[in-house]
Amino acid sequence: MPIKEGKRYCINHPSARMNRTGTFKALVNVEGNAADGTINPQSGLVVMPFVCEECGYLEMYVADKTHQDKK
Ligand SMILES: [Zn+2]
């Protein structure tokens, strides 16, 4: 999905923001826990999914590349 000024937009709706899902997800079995910061990045690919509420389009970024979303 395109990122404009740190905000993510739907590829189908250029004016619609993509909303993060509540938690990080993993494409494979990740060891550790995101809540307490014990994720082992070597155990799998940690991703941040985003969803467009208008069309349901789902896209994701690798979590460790999206520093602007870290709390
Ligand atoms: Zn959309």
Describe this structure as you would to a colleague.
The chain is mostly beta strands and 71 residues long. It has one domain (3-66). Helix content is 0%, strand content 30%. The protein is built from no helices and six strands. It is elongated and about 35 Å long. The mean pLDDT is 80. The structure holds zinc ion (ZN). Residues 10, 12-13, 16, 52, 54-55, 57 line the site of zinc ion.
Sheet with the most strands, sense and barrel status: 4 strands, antiparallel
Low-confidence stretches: none
Give the ordered list of helices and strands.
EEEEEE
**Mass-distribution shape:** elongated
Number of strands: 6
The number of distinct helices, counting runs of at least 4 residues, comes to 0
Radius of gyration: 13 Å
Average pLDDT, to the nearest integer?
Answer: 80
Helix content: under 10%
- Kindly give the count of domains: 1
Distance between the termini: 21 Å
Bound chemical compounds: zinc ion
Overview features:
71 residues, mainly beta, four-stranded antiparallel sheet, two-stranded antiparallel ribbon, 0% helix, binds zinc ion
Short description, anyone?
The protein is an all-beta fold. Helix content is 0%, strand content 30%. The relative contact order is 0.25.
What is the topology?
Blueprint lengths: L2 E2 L2 E2 L9 E3 L4 E2 L19 E7 L5 E5 L9
Antiparallel strand pairs: 1-2, 3-5, 4-5, 5-6
